[in-house]
Write a structure and sequence with these properties.
Layout: H1 15-32, H2 40-63, H3 67-91, H4 100-119, H5 126-148, H6 151-181, H7 192-199
Helix pairs in contact: 1-2, 1-6, 2-3, 4-5, 5-6
Length: 200
């Protein structure tokens, strides 16, 4: 197996935060699929723990003046906590579920936020682009599902969300291995312009 001798690029996000993002997304998607819906208490615990991990690493990044991870992780931590109040609390008898228009607007706004991350990732690795692209498509599809109540949008949103979760775990594992070996062993798909700059 040929190992790339190119220098290791800086991590997109901390590995534990990426895993927490993947687990939070998976448990939320499963809660939308009736045949595979986990217990509501388990869903709430996973979402709260995932949000706590992302908020913690976001605050650490902010203290280190690493603005990009902080700008990504802090909003996502708040996002998962908001989903607890929207989906988990009403199932426990605390409050009511938001209406279809409310959830459509809310998820669409978060889809636009991820779209900004996707557009800002074109000078980064292919894996990072795949992560934000599939997550953007997932959120927008799920928002359309609330508006149209169409199972096709639900299945498309869940499928692309699962791809985003697997991609996040892959990026976390690749970063850990590459940082430990100090060379690019697990490929992330480097941007061509960046590869040309390294070769010069």
């Amino acid at each position: 197996m040929q190992v790339s001798s190119s220098p290791v690029s800086s991590p997109e996000l901390p590995g534990p935060a990426l895993v927490a993002l993947a687990l939070s997304l998976i448990i939320y998607l499963l809660s939308l699929l009736a045949p595979y819906r986990p217990p509501i208490l388990l869903t709430g615990i996973v979402l709260v723990c995932g949000a706590a991990v992302q908020l913690m690493y976001g605050l650490f990044s902010r203290q280190r003046e690493d603005t990009r991870p902080a700008a990504i992780l802090l909003p996502f931590g708040i996002f998962w906590l908001s989903l607890v109040s929207y989906d988990v609390f009403p199932e426990l008898g605390l409050g009511r579920h938001p209406g279809a228009i409310t959830m459509f607007s809310y998820l669409s706004l978060w889809g636009l936020f991820v779209a900004i991350l996707f557009l800002g990732s074109f000078r980064r690795s292919l894996a990072v682009r795949l992560l934000w692209g599939t997550l953007m498509f997932s959120l927008l599809s799920l928002s359309m599902n609330h508006l149209r109540d169409d199972r096709v949008f639900l299945l498309l949103g869940c499928l692309s969300g699962f791809v985003a979760s697997v991609t996040a775990v892959y990026i976390a594992a690749a970063q850990a291995v590459n940082q430990r070996r100090r060379c690019e062993i697990v490929p992330l798909g480097r941007w061509r312009g960046l590869a040309e700059e390294d070769s010069n």
